[in-house]
Amino acid sequence: MSQPADDALRLHKEIAGAGTGLPQPLRAVWRTLYWTYERATWQYDVMVIAILAFVWLTPPAWIGDPHASGLGLLGWLTAWLRG
Amino acid sequence: MTFTGLIGTVCMFPLRAIIRVCVLLRIHPNVLTFVGVLINLLAAWALATGRFVTAGGIMIAANIFDFIDGKVAREMGMESAFGGFWDSVMDRFSDLALFLGLVYLYSSVHRTDYVVITVMAMIFTVLTSYARARAESVVAQCKVGFMERPERIVLFMIGAFTNRMAGVMWVILVLSILTVADRIFYTWRELERGKAPERVTV
Fold first, then answer.
1. What single DSSP character describes residue A64?
2. Which of A3, A27, A72, B136 could form a disulfide with A19 if both were Cys (CB 3.0 to 4.6 A apart)?
3. Domain limits of chain A?
4. Cβ–Cβ below 8 Å for A56 and B144
């Protein structure tokens, strides 16, 4: 195995080991905050989806966006539910 | 294959053709880097004037140059230490130019809050690359953290094309802060681990 691949594997093992003292939900939070995953992994995909959800679903008014127009998907749904 | 892996594979088809053309025309990779920066300055101007869709289109063109320069250098056998250095410095300049465009835009509509958020995102963007460069002078590799340049550029384009730049600034700011923290923590751990055997022998 190449040196960078060795380093990445060692790092992942180290992180997995570092999280063993934590309960599962906290371990997931720790691994999200201390990001060591490569691109094009399923964890990376989940992060990308979460980011896109925040950017596209949050109503611009909630974050005081000076330029965006429209409600955003979440704002539209909220307005629709309120009738 | 993952979702992001599939997108990367699809995008590589046209890029491979562009790389082949550049190699055939024997265009120097450092020139490609510089042209990318000049186009990014146009994108910054478009952001500053609030023309987000135009800015997004220009950013795509700029980042094609930015993406292919290293690959063209490899294919032409022209990889050099200076080329890597030049590319890194120009990347920082391009990043800062885009942020400056947004700072100008938000200040022109008197939105001090978003001026502050954009400037903070800019500061932590610089710190992200500085932390890695400085860390790699004392440890072998420091690639932890999510928010690297490709992620940032794609986010800029998404924000521009979908008119959601404020949300994008928040994401870049929060994830850049985390990335800097990750790199500091990783470097500290690596250096502490290096120290451990010395402590045992003393």
1. T
2. A27
3. 1-36, 44-83
4. no
Contacts of B19 (CB under 8 A, 6+ apart): B68, B71, B72, B75
Gyration radius of chain A's alpha carbons: 19
Whole-prediction pTM value? Answer: 0.85
Domain boundaries, chain B: 3-192
Closest to A68 (Cβ–Cβ): which among B145, B158, B164?
Answer: B164
- Say yes or no for a CB contact (<8 Å) between B171 and A54: yes
Q: Which fold has domain B3-192?
A: Four Helix Bundle (Hemerythrin (Met), subunit A) (1.20.120)
Pair B156, B98: CB distance under 8 Å: yes
Which of B109, B150, B171 has the CB atom closest to A55's CB atom?
B171
Per-residue model confidence as pLDDT tens digits over B116-144 = 999 999 999 999 999 999 999 999 899 99
User: What ipTM, to 2 d.p.?
Assistant: 0.87
- Please name the residues in contact with B137: beta carbons below 8 A apart, sequence gap of 6 or more: none
d(CA B140, CA B88): 18
| Token pair of A75 as six digits | 């704002």
Closest chain B C-alpha to A30 CA, distance in angstroms: 11
Is the CB of residue B48 less than 8 Å from the CB of residue B104? yes
Q: Is B111 on the interface with A (CB under 8 A)?
A: yes
Cα gap B139→B150, rounded to integer Å? 23
Dist CA B143 CA A19 (whole Å) = 20
- Residues contacting B174, CB < 8 A, separation 6+: none
pLDDT tens figures, B62-107? 999 988 999 999 999 999 999 999 999 999 999 999 999 999 999 9
Helix runs in chain B, H state only = 3-24, 29-48, 52-75, 81-108, 112-135, 149-161, 165-201
